[in-house]
Design goal:
- This protein is α/β, with parallel strands linked by helices.
- It contains 20 helices and 10 strands.
- Strands 2-1-3-4-5 form a 5-stranded parallel beta sheet, with helices on both faces. Strands 7-8-6-9-10 form a 5-stranded mixed beta sheet, with helices on both faces.
- Strand 3, helix 3 and strand 4 form a beta-alpha-beta unit.
- The protein starts with a strand and ends with a helix.
Amino acid sequence: MIKILIVDDEQIEREGMEAILNRAFPDLIVEQANNGNRAVELAASFKPDLVLMDIQMPGMNGLEAVEQILADFPHIKFIMVTAYDTFNYVQSALKLGAKDYILKPSKVSEIRATVGKVLNEIENEREQQAASSLQREMMQKTLALVETDVVTQLLFDHVHEVHLNMLIEMLDIQSTSQVFVMNVIVPEGMEHLYSRIKEKVRKTKSGWMGALYDGQLPIIIFRNGQSFRAQATSLARDILFEVTKEQKSGWFIGIGDDCNSLEKIRQSYQEAIIASSNKTLPVKYRFYQDIPVLNETGSWQQAKYLKKDLTDHIRLGQWDQIKSNLSHLIQAYEMEGIEIQQAQQYVLESLWSIWSIISDLGIGAATPIYHYQASNYRQLRFETANLLAEMKESYDQHYTSLEADTIYRIKQFIMENSQQNISLETLSNKVGLSPIYISKMFKEKLGINYIDFLTECRIEKAKKMLAEPDKSIKEITIEVGYHEPNYFSKVFKKMCNVTPREYRKTLLGIKD
């Protein structure tokens, strides 16, 4: 409802005006003030949308009241009420921002017309504000989806520089010269705290959050001028302080080394995974660079050999060879007398390497985590064999259930629904495959990133719509799946080397 404040030192004038307004606009909420000082007070408490202000009043006159109210509430609109002999005051009021004036005396029809015009303006502004608010909300949701997908693709595939550069600009990231990855281990049942972690990261204006997958949450952090350790420690402590309010146990953060480009970000991610593998430490976060390094003993050589051929063994499905290599590695640790707790950590790092490779292939295997601290090497061999068997089972199930027409189904879905906010998770739910695999498969089979394909679909639709002169750029923006015309124009220009308006002019043969 719209609120109106009637200000006049004559009660009969106020009552008469209210009666006219109530008959003409029955949904209004009306208050009265008998002088300028009272009008200023009610502007703060009643918060009117429109004020009908008499000019000549004792004490603070109407012009002074308008000026004072506008200083604190610039959105309030004014209609001045005056007699013929004070018309020069009206000009001053209009300069202050008054929308119109009503002469004393005036016909009821003239009052209705003048007030009605301003009421329509207020209604239109409210609708525009609501639409803008909705667009901002939709834009934030879109950016959140893009941010999550970009992190996934940076860590497991790649992302087109168009989207990467725009996201950096629109999310107000402070620096891109050096980056590193943090891996947050999220305890089971605490997934609802994702939004709180995201808020902590967003406030720094230096990080992107990935998707929470299998109890792990990757975060890409852009260096912000602090030292690497100071920046990472500060954010890790902020996150842990927030989440441990609800549950103290189970949380852990691994921090990979910083690198000088996004091209090397996967290395930092692998380091963050390894750093987060041992949650038995007294602290709740650990830097990869703080992990003790094995001496170049037999076990060190064994671990190096295992990791060297791991990718080929997994791609070829040579799980017996992987199992044999792991067994030899454990045996080497035992023969060298390495403490069982330290050995379990080293073996877990090898299991994480295996998990990382099959995740890159798009296989949604459970994260290998020891559920207890082994007390001897026999227990370590047994539990390691179980974890390896679980990953092999996920590997086998994946390749037996994969449908040959998956790519076709994904392409069709994107083309038919490109106006929607399609994320990797959306596609994952559609075809029943992991987001990581879809990202890899798209690039390997089609030579293009799925975000690029989605963008191409949207831009092609936009080109066709630009041939329709009756459609505005804003309408086209919404219809093709964007929520902010400026962002749409930037994407269009990146893809077509001209703005949508320039493209339309060329298409329709319009000359400047």
